[in-house]
Amino acid sequence: MVAAGIISASLLHFFTPPHFIFWHNVFQRLYYIPIIYAAIYFGIRGGLAASLFAAVLYIPHIIRAWHPMPDYAMNQYAEIVLFFLVGSITGILADADRKHRKELEAATEETRKLYLELQNSFEQLKRADRLAAIGQLSAGLAHEIRNPLGSIDGAAQVLQQPETPEEVRKEFREVIRKETRRLNRLLTNLLDFARPRCPDFQPVDVGRTIDAVISLVSPTARQSGIQLRKQISRSVPPIECDNEQLKQVLLNLVMNAIQAMPDGGEIGVAAVEKYADIVIAVRDQGVGIPAEDVDKVFDPFFTTKGSGTGLGLSVAHQIVTQHGGVITVERNPDRGMTFSVAIPICHGRDN
User: Fold this and answer.
1) CA-CA distances (angstroms) from residue 149 to 140, 155, 157, 181, 272?
2) Domains identified in the chain, total number
3) pLDDT tens for residues 30-69?
4) Is-contact 237 200, C-beta < 8 A?
5) Residue 208 belongs to a domain with what CATH number?
6) Do the strands 226-232 and 265-274 form a parallel or antiparallel pair, or are they unpaired?
7) pTM here?
8) Are residues 152 and 235 in the same domain?
Protein backbone atom coordinates (compact mmCIF):
# COMPACT_ATOMS: atom_id res chain seq x y z
CA MET A 1 0.00 0.00 0.00
CA VAL A 2 2.86 2.39 0.84
CA ALA A 3 4.72 1.52 -2.38
CA ALA A 4 1.52 1.84 -4.43
CA GLY A 5 0.90 5.34 -3.02
CA ILE A 6 4.43 6.51 -3.79
CA ILE A 7 4.37 5.00 -7.29
CA SER A 8 0.99 6.61 -7.99
CA ALA A 9 2.25 10.05 -6.95
CA SER A 10 5.39 9.56 -9.03
CA LEU A 11 3.42 8.55 -12.13
CA LEU A 12 1.14 11.55 -11.78
CA HIS A 13 4.21 13.74 -11.52
CA PHE A 14 5.96 12.07 -14.44
CA PHE A 15 3.09 12.27 -16.92
CA THR A 16 1.95 15.81 -16.06
CA PRO A 17 3.51 18.45 -18.38
CA PRO A 18 5.95 20.77 -16.54
CA HIS A 19 3.93 23.92 -17.27
CA PHE A 20 1.14 22.68 -14.94
CA ILE A 21 3.00 23.99 -11.90
CA PHE A 22 -0.10 23.95 -9.65
CA TRP A 23 -0.72 20.26 -10.22
CA HIS A 24 2.93 19.43 -9.72
CA ASN A 25 2.74 21.13 -6.31
CA VAL A 26 -0.36 19.10 -5.46
CA PHE A 27 1.21 15.79 -6.55
CA GLN A 28 4.35 16.69 -4.66
CA ARG A 29 2.35 16.78 -1.42
CA LEU A 30 0.85 13.36 -2.16
CA TYR A 31 4.20 11.73 -1.33
CA TYR A 32 3.72 12.64 2.33
CA ILE A 33 0.64 10.46 2.73
CA PRO A 34 2.37 7.07 2.22
CA ILE A 35 5.49 8.31 4.03
CA ILE A 36 3.50 9.27 7.15
CA TYR A 37 1.47 6.08 6.90
CA ALA A 38 4.65 3.96 6.78
CA ALA A 39 6.16 5.88 9.70
CA ILE A 40 3.05 5.45 11.85
CA TYR A 41 2.64 1.73 11.24
CA PHE A 42 6.29 0.65 10.87
CA GLY A 43 8.14 3.21 12.97
CA ILE A 44 11.23 5.18 12.04
CA ARG A 45 12.54 2.40 9.80
CA GLY A 46 9.32 2.40 7.80
CA GLY A 47 9.34 6.18 7.57
CA LEU A 48 12.94 6.29 6.33
CA ALA A 49 12.38 3.44 3.88
CA ALA A 50 9.30 5.14 2.41
CA SER A 51 11.20 8.45 2.20
CA LEU A 52 14.09 6.77 0.40
CA PHE A 53 11.74 5.05 -2.03
CA ALA A 54 9.95 8.34 -2.72
CA ALA A 55 13.30 10.08 -3.28
CA VAL A 56 14.49 7.38 -5.71
CA LEU A 57 11.35 7.84 -7.80
CA TYR A 58 11.23 11.61 -7.46
CA ILE A 59 14.86 12.49 -8.35
CA PRO A 60 14.62 11.27 -12.00
CA HIS A 61 11.54 13.45 -12.44
CA ILE A 62 13.45 16.48 -11.10
CA ILE A 63 16.37 15.84 -13.45
CA ARG A 64 14.07 15.32 -16.41
CA ALA A 65 11.50 18.09 -15.86
CA TRP A 66 13.22 20.82 -13.81
CA HIS A 67 16.86 20.67 -14.92
CA PRO A 68 16.44 23.79 -17.10
CA MET A 69 15.19 25.66 -13.96
CA PRO A 70 18.02 25.27 -11.37
CA ASP A 71 16.31 27.37 -8.66
CA TYR A 72 13.08 25.38 -8.83
CA ALA A 73 15.04 22.14 -9.05
CA MET A 74 16.85 23.02 -5.79
CA ASN A 75 13.47 23.57 -4.14
CA GLN A 76 12.47 20.06 -5.22
CA TYR A 77 15.67 18.58 -3.77
CA ALA A 78 14.89 20.43 -0.54
CA GLU A 79 11.46 18.77 -0.64
CA ILE A 80 13.19 15.39 -0.63
CA VAL A 81 15.01 16.43 2.53
CA LEU A 82 11.60 17.20 4.04
CA PHE A 83 10.48 13.68 3.08
CA PHE A 84 13.20 12.28 5.34
CA LEU A 85 12.49 14.78 8.13
CA VAL A 86 8.77 14.03 8.13
CA GLY A 87 9.37 10.28 7.93
CA SER A 88 11.96 10.38 10.72
CA ILE A 89 10.01 12.57 13.14
CA THR A 90 6.74 10.72 12.57
CA GLY A 91 8.54 7.39 12.96
CA ILE A 92 10.22 8.48 16.20
CA LEU A 93 6.88 9.62 17.63
CA ALA A 94 5.18 6.43 16.47
CA ASP A 95 7.90 4.27 18.05
CA ALA A 96 7.63 6.22 21.30
CA ASP A 97 3.85 5.82 21.31
CA ARG A 98 4.15 2.11 20.56
CA LYS A 99 6.67 1.69 23.38
CA HIS A 100 4.40 3.59 25.74
CA ARG A 101 1.44 1.39 24.79
CA LYS A 102 3.49 -1.74 25.41
CA GLU A 103 4.52 -0.42 28.81
CA LEU A 104 0.88 0.34 29.63
CA GLU A 105 -0.19 -3.13 28.49
CA ALA A 106 2.55 -4.69 30.61
CA ALA A 107 1.53 -2.56 33.59
CA THR A 108 -2.13 -3.47 33.03
CA GLU A 109 -1.28 -7.17 32.89
CA GLU A 110 0.79 -6.86 36.04
CA THR A 111 -2.05 -5.02 37.75
CA ARG A 112 -4.48 -7.74 36.67
CA LYS A 113 -2.23 -10.43 38.12
CA LEU A 114 -1.86 -8.49 41.37
CA TYR A 115 -5.64 -8.02 41.49
CA LEU A 116 -6.21 -11.76 41.07
CA GLU A 117 -3.66 -12.49 43.77
CA LEU A 118 -5.34 -9.93 46.03
CA GLN A 119 -8.74 -11.48 45.34
CA ASN A 120 -7.40 -14.93 46.23
CA SER A 121 -5.85 -13.57 49.41
CA PHE A 122 -9.08 -11.76 50.24
CA GLU A 123 -11.12 -14.94 49.76
CA GLN A 124 -8.72 -16.82 52.03
CA LEU A 125 -9.05 -14.10 54.65
CA LYS A 126 -12.83 -14.22 54.40
CA ARG A 127 -12.80 -17.99 54.88
CA ALA A 128 -10.51 -17.60 57.86
CA ASP A 129 -12.74 -14.86 59.28
CA ARG A 130 -15.81 -17.05 58.82
CA LEU A 131 -14.14 -19.93 60.63
CA ALA A 132 -13.04 -17.60 63.42
CA ALA A 133 -16.55 -16.14 63.65
CA ILE A 134 -18.07 -19.62 63.86
CA GLY A 135 -15.66 -20.51 66.64
CA GLN A 136 -16.41 -17.28 68.50
CA LEU A 137 -20.15 -17.77 68.00
CA SER A 138 -20.01 -21.34 69.29
CA ALA A 139 -17.97 -20.35 72.33
CA GLY A 140 -20.30 -17.46 73.14
CA LEU A 141 -23.40 -19.59 72.68
CA ALA A 142 -22.03 -22.31 74.94
CA HIS A 143 -21.24 -19.71 77.62
CA GLU A 144 -24.65 -18.06 77.38
CA ILE A 145 -26.51 -21.37 77.56
CA ARG A 146 -24.41 -22.80 80.40
CA ASN A 147 -25.44 -20.09 82.88
CA PRO A 148 -29.24 -20.52 82.67
CA LEU A 149 -28.88 -24.29 82.47
CA GLY A 150 -26.85 -24.22 85.68
CA SER A 151 -29.55 -22.13 87.37
CA ILE A 152 -32.29 -24.49 86.15
CA ASP A 153 -30.36 -27.55 87.30
CA GLY A 154 -29.74 -26.02 90.75
CA ALA A 155 -33.39 -25.02 91.12
CA ALA A 156 -34.54 -28.52 90.08
CA GLN A 157 -32.28 -30.11 92.69
CA VAL A 158 -33.76 -27.88 95.40
CA LEU A 159 -37.30 -28.74 94.28
CA GLN A 160 -36.49 -32.47 94.46
CA GLN A 161 -35.77 -32.24 98.18
CA PRO A 162 -38.90 -33.13 100.19
CA GLU A 163 -38.03 -30.87 103.11
CA THR A 164 -37.90 -27.74 100.92
CA PRO A 165 -40.52 -25.21 102.19
CA GLU A 166 -43.31 -24.17 99.83
CA GLU A 167 -42.14 -20.54 99.74
CA VAL A 168 -38.68 -21.66 98.60
CA ARG A 169 -40.27 -24.00 96.06
CA LYS A 170 -42.26 -21.11 94.66
CA GLU A 171 -39.11 -18.98 94.43
CA PHE A 172 -37.16 -21.66 92.57
CA ARG A 173 -40.04 -22.42 90.20
CA GLU A 174 -39.91 -18.75 89.28
CA VAL A 175 -36.15 -19.11 88.70
CA ILE A 176 -36.81 -21.98 86.29
CA ARG A 177 -39.43 -19.98 84.40
CA LYS A 178 -37.15 -16.93 84.25
CA GLU A 179 -34.17 -18.88 82.96
CA THR A 180 -36.36 -20.72 80.45
CA ARG A 181 -37.57 -17.39 79.06
CA ARG A 182 -33.97 -16.25 78.92
CA LEU A 183 -33.00 -19.33 76.91
CA ASN A 184 -35.94 -18.83 74.58
CA ARG A 185 -34.97 -15.18 74.02
CA LEU A 186 -31.39 -16.23 73.38
CA LEU A 187 -32.40 -18.80 70.78
CA THR A 188 -34.81 -16.36 69.10
CA ASN A 189 -32.08 -13.73 68.77
CA LEU A 190 -29.64 -16.36 67.57
CA LEU A 191 -32.04 -17.45 64.83
CA ASP A 192 -32.57 -13.83 63.82
CA PHE A 193 -28.81 -13.43 63.61
CA ALA A 194 -28.09 -16.72 61.83
CA ARG A 195 -31.02 -16.64 59.38
CA PRO A 196 -32.03 -13.00 58.89
CA ARG A 197 -35.27 -12.33 57.05
CA CYS A 198 -34.93 -10.56 53.72
CA PRO A 199 -36.19 -6.97 53.98
CA ASP A 200 -39.55 -6.10 52.45
CA PHE A 201 -38.73 -2.73 50.91
CA GLN A 202 -41.59 -0.22 51.02
CA PRO A 203 -41.77 3.58 51.26
CA VAL A 204 -41.58 4.37 54.99
CA ASP A 205 -42.20 7.62 56.86
CA VAL A 206 -39.24 7.81 59.26
CA GLY A 207 -41.08 10.18 61.59
CA ARG A 208 -43.97 7.76 62.09
CA THR A 209 -41.59 4.88 62.74
CA ILE A 210 -39.75 6.89 65.39
CA ASP A 211 -43.10 7.89 66.94
CA ALA A 212 -44.09 4.22 67.13
CA VAL A 213 -40.82 3.31 68.85
CA ILE A 214 -41.14 6.17 71.34
CA SER A 215 -44.71 5.12 72.09
CA LEU A 216 -43.56 1.56 72.85
CA VAL A 217 -40.73 2.56 75.20
CA SER A 218 -42.38 5.55 76.89
CA PRO A 219 -43.76 3.61 79.90
CA THR A 220 -40.34 2.08 80.62
CA ALA A 221 -38.65 5.44 80.15
CA ARG A 222 -41.02 7.21 82.58
CA GLN A 223 -40.40 4.57 85.25
CA SER A 224 -36.65 5.25 84.92
CA GLY A 225 -37.06 9.04 85.01
CA ILE A 226 -35.99 9.41 81.39
CA GLN A 227 -37.33 11.99 78.94
CA LEU A 228 -37.50 11.09 75.25
CA ARG A 229 -36.93 13.90 72.76
CA LYS A 230 -37.56 13.59 69.01
CA GLN A 231 -35.88 15.88 66.48
CA ILE A 232 -36.77 15.35 62.83
CA SER A 233 -36.05 17.75 60.02
CA ARG A 234 -39.11 18.70 57.97
CA SER A 235 -37.21 17.97 54.77
CA VAL A 236 -36.66 14.29 55.62
CA PRO A 237 -38.23 12.29 52.77
CA PRO A 238 -39.67 8.77 52.99
CA ILE A 239 -37.12 6.00 52.59
CA GLU A 240 -37.36 2.57 50.99
CA CYS A 241 -36.86 0.03 53.76
CA ASP A 242 -38.53 -2.69 55.81
CA ASN A 243 -40.55 -0.77 58.39
CA GLU A 244 -40.69 -3.61 60.92
CA GLN A 245 -36.96 -4.23 60.72
CA LEU A 246 -36.16 -0.52 61.03
CA LYS A 247 -38.46 -0.38 64.06
CA GLN A 248 -36.64 -3.40 65.52
CA VAL A 249 -33.27 -1.66 65.12
CA LEU A 250 -34.44 1.62 66.68
CA LEU A 251 -36.27 -0.17 69.49
CA ASN A 252 -33.08 -2.05 70.35
CA LEU A 253 -31.02 1.15 70.36
CA VAL A 254 -33.49 3.11 72.49
CA MET A 255 -33.96 0.26 74.99
CA ASN A 256 -30.18 -0.07 75.31
CA ALA A 257 -30.00 3.67 75.97
CA ILE A 258 -32.67 3.41 78.68
CA GLN A 259 -30.85 0.53 80.37
CA ALA A 260 -27.61 2.55 80.29
CA MET A 261 -29.26 5.43 82.25
CA PRO A 262 -30.15 4.15 85.74
CA ASP A 263 -30.12 7.72 87.10
CA GLY A 264 -32.46 9.11 84.45
CA GLY A 265 -31.77 11.85 81.96
CA GLU A 266 -32.66 12.52 78.34
CA ILE A 267 -32.54 10.41 75.19
CA GLY A 268 -32.57 12.19 71.85
CA VAL A 269 -33.74 10.54 68.65
CA ALA A 270 -32.90 12.68 65.61
CA ALA A 271 -33.29 12.12 61.86
CA VAL A 272 -31.71 14.21 59.12
CA GLU A 273 -31.09 13.86 55.39
CA LYS A 274 -27.40 13.64 54.56
CA TYR A 275 -26.40 13.32 50.92
CA ALA A 276 -28.43 10.32 49.65
CA ASP A 277 -28.99 8.80 53.12
CA ILE A 278 -31.27 9.32 56.07
CA VAL A 279 -29.24 9.32 59.28
CA ILE A 280 -31.08 8.42 62.49
CA ALA A 281 -29.12 9.09 65.68
CA VAL A 282 -29.97 7.83 69.18
CA ARG A 283 -28.06 9.88 71.78
CA ASP A 284 -28.13 9.01 75.47
CA GLN A 285 -26.67 10.39 78.70
CA GLY A 286 -25.81 7.02 80.17
CA VAL A 287 -22.80 5.40 81.71
CA GLY A 288 -21.21 4.94 78.28
CA ILE A 289 -18.99 2.20 76.95
CA PRO A 290 -15.27 1.93 77.76
CA ALA A 291 -13.11 3.14 74.89
CA GLU A 292 -11.46 -0.27 74.55
CA ASP A 293 -14.88 -1.93 74.06
CA VAL A 294 -16.39 0.45 71.49
CA ASP A 295 -15.11 -1.62 68.56
CA LYS A 296 -16.67 -4.78 70.01
CA VAL A 297 -20.26 -3.66 70.53
CA PHE A 298 -21.51 -5.25 67.29
CA ASP A 299 -19.75 -8.58 67.93
CA PRO A 300 -22.05 -11.54 68.72
CA PHE A 301 -22.53 -12.20 72.46
CA PHE A 302 -20.59 -9.10 73.49
CA THR A 303 -22.45 -7.14 76.15
CA THR A 304 -21.58 -4.66 78.88
CA LYS A 305 -24.82 -5.40 80.75
CA GLY A 306 -25.25 -7.94 83.52
CA SER A 307 -28.14 -9.54 81.64
CA GLY A 308 -28.90 -9.85 77.96
CA THR A 309 -27.93 -12.10 75.09
CA GLY A 310 -25.34 -9.83 73.46
CA LEU A 311 -27.02 -10.41 70.09
CA GLY A 312 -29.27 -7.36 69.86
CA LEU A 313 -26.71 -5.02 68.32
CA SER A 314 -25.36 -7.81 66.11
CA VAL A 315 -28.85 -8.35 64.67
CA ALA A 316 -29.28 -4.58 64.28
CA HIS A 317 -25.95 -4.37 62.43
CA GLN A 318 -27.03 -7.20 60.13
CA ILE A 319 -30.39 -5.57 59.36
CA VAL A 320 -28.80 -2.21 58.55
CA THR A 321 -26.22 -3.90 56.32
CA GLN A 322 -28.99 -5.71 54.43
CA HIS A 323 -30.52 -2.30 53.75
CA GLY A 324 -27.24 -1.10 52.23
CA GLY A 325 -26.63 1.16 55.21
CA VAL A 326 -24.13 1.63 58.01
CA ILE A 327 -24.53 1.66 61.79
CA THR A 328 -21.86 3.37 63.89
CA VAL A 329 -21.25 4.25 67.53
CA GLU A 330 -19.21 7.00 69.18
CA ARG A 331 -18.67 8.32 72.67
CA ASN A 332 -20.24 11.69 73.42
CA PRO A 333 -17.95 14.55 74.49
CA ASP A 334 -19.72 14.89 77.85
CA ARG A 335 -21.24 11.52 78.70
CA GLY A 336 -23.11 8.67 77.10
CA MET A 337 -23.05 7.26 73.60
CA THR A 338 -24.55 8.05 70.20
CA PHE A 339 -25.58 5.28 67.83
CA SER A 340 -26.15 6.42 64.24
CA VAL A 341 -27.96 4.50 61.50
CA ALA A 342 -27.47 5.69 57.91
CA ILE A 343 -29.84 4.10 55.37
CA PRO A 344 -30.05 4.97 51.65
CA ILE A 345 -33.20 6.87 50.71
CA CYS A 346 -33.62 4.75 47.57
CA HIS A 347 -33.08 1.02 47.80
CA GLY A 348 -30.67 -0.37 45.24
CA ARG A 349 -28.56 2.75 44.63
CA ASP A 350 -24.76 2.36 44.41
CA ASN A 351 -22.99 3.00 47.70
Assistant:
1) 14, 10, 12, 12, 45
2) 2
3) 767 777 777 787 888 887 887 787 777 777 766 666 666 6
4) no
5) 3.30.565.10
6) parallel
7) 0.52
8) no
